[in-house]
Amino acid sequence: MQKIALSSPDATPGAAIRPPHAVVVMGVSGCGKSTVGDMLARRQHWAFVEGDAFHSAENHAKMRAGVPLTDEDRASWLAALGQELARRAADGVVLSCSALKRAYRQQLRAHVPGLVFIWLEVGRDAAHQRVAGRGDRHFFPTTLIDSQFATLEPPHDEAGLLHLDSERPLEELLAHAAAWLQRNPHAHP
């Protein structure tokens, strides 16, 4: 696990930095963002925000038709998610959002200083199986899985990141995530 880094340019020198109260659970479709995000939010007694609910009707229609979203399609969606994170951060919030590119993550970070990410990495085959298992309950088709992997810019070198193998048991993922969020960043340089 990577250590959490929560420095902020406007932080008062010597002031204690509390553990984060805003986290994005990210990854390609089928990695378990919504399940892990919702359960983690419950465990933390925080709000849960389902990122897919903020897509426009046009974005939903494109994806339903098997057309990958562009950066332009995602721009207003990311702006709305950033505003929602900022609105809820003081009380604690977990957002499920693919956040596939570094630029998307930076856009979200601009709204909430100290925002952290939990990257649920999943194999291509597992993602296909999970998305196929949703049936008609979800707008995202399996035909878009490859485009998600092609778009993904893994956040290996980014601060404030927990990298988890999403094919591990759910309770294990939740335990790691909750412990990581509670860790005092000054106690673990």
Automatic annotation (TrEMBL):
It catalyses: D-gluconate + ATP = 6-phospho-D-gluconate + ADP + H(+). CDD domains: GntK (cd02021). Keywords: ATP-binding, Kinase, Nucleotide-binding, Transferase. SUPFAM superfamilies: P-loop containing nucleoside triphosphate hydrolases (SSF52540). The keyword DNA-binding does not apply. Pathway: Carbohydrate acid metabolism. Belongs to the gluconokinase GntK/GntV family. This is Gluconokinase.
